[in-house]
Design brief:
Blueprint: H1 17-21, H2 29-42, H3 51-60, H4 69-80, E1 83-87, E2 90-93, H5 95-104
Antiparallel strand pairs: 1-2
Helix pairs in contact: 2-3, 2-4
Length: 111
């Protein structure tokens, strides 16, 4: 698994992804990565999501994938503090990431 050359993971259930994602208005790649990781853990029941599974989420929603893909994870970890990114297969959401997701991430207005 190479974070710079992500591959689709056909085993990821993305059937509920659009509904989950559409609750939010992510403003940048770190927020999208955070939303996708939350989806993979909470809805797809993947305890330890990897970069390929996050890429599968970008692809399933036809969202623009960051061109410097591995760097996007490093930035999400180092600049935002939302995740710990140790390797392509070792990613955890931090307390800072949980707080951002639960309190600061812009939600779409209920109509």
């Amino acid at each position: 698994m190479n974070p710079d050359s992500p591959k689709l993971d056909k085993n990821v259930d993305t059937s509920q992804l659009r509904v989950f994602y559409d609750q939010f208005e992510p403003g940048n790649a770190p927020e999208k990565i955070l939303i996708f990781l939350k989806y993979l853990v909470e809805k797809a029941s993947i305890d330890k999501p990897n970069t390929d599974q996050v890429y599968t989420c970008f692809h399933a929603l036809k969202e623009k994938t960051p061109s410097a893909y591995a760097q996007a994870f490093r930035d999400t970890a180092n600049k935002r503090g939302f995740i710990e990114f140790n390797s392509a297969a070792d990613i955890q959401i931090t307390i800072m990431g949980e707080n951002h997701f639960n309190h600061d991430l812009k939600k779409k207005d209920a109509e």
